[in-house]
């Protein structure tokens, strides 16, 4: 919807590996953790395009998941045969099992295509706290 597409979990504007990873990761998170994915919605818009970057992201997921045979064991043969979804879903399972930090891994997948981490950007420009001194908040000028 952010890219002007109809609502779907497979947006055409998003890199297929990132989209598959986000679907699998989201499905395995609890409600509170799932809310932390919100900043990533805008970050993945327009990440589709460069096939070299998609291949690099797919290889990164496959390495984390442990290769094709382990992917088949983790997510099933049909998913393993899917070029993008299998490695991404298996990587999400590994992450939820404690193999890595899912948000840091997502930041790396985005960085492969030159997209900055929404978490790091939010940390660099924190929102003002209610009651904070006004002179600390930068003024917006026209």
Q: Count the helices. How many?
A: 9
**Rg, please?**
17 Å
- Largest pleated sheet: none
Q: Which structural class fits the helix and strand makeup?
A: mainly alpha
Shape designation: globular
Q: Total strand count, please?
A: 0
Distance between the termini: 29 Å
- The fraction of residues in strands falls at under 5%
Order of helices and strands: HHHHHHHHH
* Average pLDDT taken over every residue: 77
Overall number of structural domains: 1
Q: In terms of per-residue confidence, which ranges show pLDDT below 50 for 5 or more consecutive residues? A: 124-142
Helix content: 55-70%
Question: What features would you describe in this structure?
Answer:
With 142 residues, this protein is mainly alpha-helical. It has one domain. Helices cover 57% and strands 0% of the residues. It contains nine helices and no strands. Helix 1 runs antiparallel to helix 8 and helix 5 packs across helix 7. It starts with 15 loop residues before the first helix and ends in an 18-residue tail after the last helix. The relative contact order is 0.15. The C terminus is likely disordered.
């Amino acid at each position: 919807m952010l890219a002007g597409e109809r609502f779907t979990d497979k947006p055409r504007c998003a890199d297929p590996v990132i989209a598959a990873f986000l679907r699998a990761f989201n499905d395995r998170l609890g409600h509170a953790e799932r809310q932390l994915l919100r900043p990533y919605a805008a970050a993945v818009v327009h990440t589709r395009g460069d096939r070299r970057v998609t291949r690099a992201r797919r290889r990164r997921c496959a390495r984390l998941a442990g290769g094709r045979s382990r992917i088949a064991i983790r997510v099933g043969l049909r998913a393993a045969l899917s070029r993008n979804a299998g490695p991404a879903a298996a990587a999400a399972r590994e992450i939820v099992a404690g193999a890595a930090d899912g948000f840091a891994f997502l930041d790396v997948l985005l960085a492969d295509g030159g997209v900055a981490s929404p978490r790091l950007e939010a940390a660099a420009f924190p929102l003002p706290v209610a009651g904070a001194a006004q002179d600390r908040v930068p003024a917006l000028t026209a």
